Amino acid sequence: MSAELPVVAIVGRPNVGKSTLMNRVLGRRVAIVEEKPGVTRDRKEVEAEWRGRPFLLVDTGGWLPGGTDLDRKVSRQSEEAIRNADAVLFVVDATVGVTDEDARVAELLRGLGAPVLLVANKVDDTAHEAAVWELMSLGLGEPHAASALHGRGTGDLLDDLLAVLPEEPGPEEGDTGPVGEGEEEVDGSVSVALVGRPNVGKSTLFNRLIGEDRAVVHDMPGTTRDTIDTLVDTEFGPVRFVDTAGMRRRSRIDEGTEYFSMVRALKAVDAAEVALLVIDATEGITHQDQRLAERVDAAGCPIVVVLNKWELLDAEERLDVLYQLGQKLHFLGQAPVLKLSALTGKGVHRLLPALEESISQYRTRVPTRKVNDVIRRAQQAQPAPHGGRILYATQGATDPPTFTLFTNKEVPASYLRYIERQLRDAFGLGSTPIKIRVRRRGG
């Protein structure tokens, strides 16, 4: 997140089109949208731009005073976004008119120091424009008629938004200006995705790691519907933690929101440099944990297994969980296993060093001479069958370490696994994935 950018919060009661408006401003589908209330629950922050002016856009869950414990938690997230905002887009459904909830949000916003733009959403055509003026009763000035779904009026709304944002600071001394064409701003961070089944404690661990109640935590499965990420400065450098929605079996995903949540979670895993596989130790290693671990393993990034709620197990139950781990997740090899409590924080201090070690292994670069020394010794100790021979080897890439073997003929997969073990042991590659590519040369 860029601290220098002005912050614009999109707020309102549930199902008035806040996420649709966010997607419209960004020009792409970032927030999950579905025609029912309560889909957005966490704050989602994304950098946006209009007429060359960048700003941070914050989508919030529906503000709903009272209601269930989850409703109150979501409302607190919205209130936090409002307090941190430089400007607020207050979205109201013009086709419904002013509700009691709208009036209470307006009362909260009238006491805010930041400017508020009242957005009369769902004005899809001129026939609905007359309904806009009823919203004047909210005491927040003239409403901006718009249709987030169709884009009607959103350009004028954004023009007015830029007019109330804080003035853009000029370049500081020594500033060389914006990033040039073809260049990218890189924060040098490590991306860490928290994945797991619903309700295993991912959001609680996420909040513990970033040091604030950023994600809504509740004991109802499926609370997190979208990926939420936060950049944290640690003693090992910047780490971008990504909280993902709980992933269930595809056969149990029976609504559009859950499907898109799963897609986002899988994309986060594919883009991550490390995956934290969070497992509820009180439930043991389930079949779904096993399937999910296979999917994360296939993404090719290092995995750190987190056995959450460890403090709730007695000695016999702990032994049983570790046995299940060896039986059902054996394909993860030497992946680190951390036993901790996200709720109390016990054992969480071991997580960052484990991540640092995994990333170090993932980015390992080995000189060609050393690679060939290991290959030579391995072949002397155990020659390949049927006259096969590795003539030469080199490391072609990192992230993960990728080795190319040049051979005189086809080498059996079992022998390649032997070579992989030798490389892993020789260069301390531990649990990181390794890719072996074989190129056959005549001879």
Spatial gap, N to C terminus: 56 Å
Shape descriptor: elongated
User: In order across it, which strands form the biggest sheet?
Assistant: 2-3-1-4-5-6
- Separate helix tally: 11
Largest sheet: 6 strands, mixed
Give the radius of gyration: 26 Å
Q: What portion of the residues fall into strands of 2 or more residues?
A: 15-25%
- Structural category is alpha/beta
The number of strands is 15
Are there runs of 5+ residues with pLDDT below 50, and where? 31-43, 171-186, 213-226, 249-261
Description:
By secondary structure, this protein is α/β, with parallel strands linked by helices. Helices cover about 30% and strands about 20% of the residues. The protein has helices at about 20-25, 70-85, 100-110, 155-165, 200-210, 255-270, 285-300, 315-330, 350-360, 370-380, 415-425, and strands at about 5-10, 45-50, 55-60, 85-95, 115-120, 145, 190-195, 230-235, 235-245, 275-280, 305-310, 335-340, 390-395, 400-405, 435-440. Strands 2-3-1-4-5-6 form a six-stranded mixed sheet, sandwiched between helices. Helix 10 (about 370-380) packs across helix 11. The chain is elongated. Mean pLDDT is about 75; it is low at about 30-45, about 170-185, about 215-225 and about 250-260.
How would you concisely characterize the structure shown here?
With 443 residues, the protein is α/β, with parallel strands linked by helices.
Question: What would the keywords be for this entry?
Answer:
443 residues, alpha/beta, six-stranded mixed sheet, 31% helix, elongated
Helix/strand layout:
Elements (H helix, E strand, L loop, with lengths): L6 E5 L6 H9 L17 E7 L2 E7 L9 H15 L3 E7 L6 H11 L5 E6 L22 E2 L8 H11 L25 E6 L6 H9 L17 E7 L2 E7 L12 H16 L2 E7 L6 H12 L4 E6 L6 H14 L8 E3 L11 H12 L5 H14 L8 E8 L4 E6 L5 H14 L8 E6 L3
Parallel strand pairs: 1-3, 1-4, 4-5, 5-6, 7-9, 7-10, 10-11, 11-12, 14-15
Antiparallel strand pairs: 2-3, 8-9, 13-14
